[in-house]
Amino acid sequence: MSVVAQVFVVVAGLFHLVVFAMESLLFRKPSTYGRFLVKENEVEVARPWAFNQGFYNLFLAIGALGGLVWGGDKGHAIALFACACMAGAGVVLIASDRRMARAAATQAVPPIIALVLAAVL
Question: Is 119 helix (H, G, I), strand (E, B) or coil?
Fold first, then answer.
């Protein structure tokens, strides 16, 4: 995998680590739950969902970053699979709620770029 593709894998992985922290560790903060379009009176209902979702993001980040650290064909395959999952989740997000277009793009564009660059370089 080219170095430039690896850079986008790292960007995607780091983004998903940040989202893990927001969803699983910082969700009760108004500035955090508001980003997910959750209202104050819905926080305690949404929190278990967000906590679980955060761990999905953590596992994707571990797959992307860990695959790069592992290296070789197998490690890169793991990293690219994680990127494909990230990209798919971004597509689902925009399909489910158009108000989340910016978040979906932020989530999906770096791993899509990584996938494209890995395929062509």
Answer: helix
pLDDT classification of 49: cutoffs 50, 70, 90: very high
Task: List the structure tokens of 101.
Answer: 């277009």
Structure tokens at 42: 């819905």
Neighbours of 121 (CB within 10 A): 10
Work out the burial of residue 87: count CB atoms within 10 Å of its CB; fewer than 13 is exposed, 13-18 middle, 19 or more buried: buried
pTM for this entry: 0.94
What is the spatial distance between Cα 107 and Cα 121, in angstroms, rounded to a whole number?
Answer: 22
Q: CB 56: neighbour CB atoms within 10 A?
A: 16
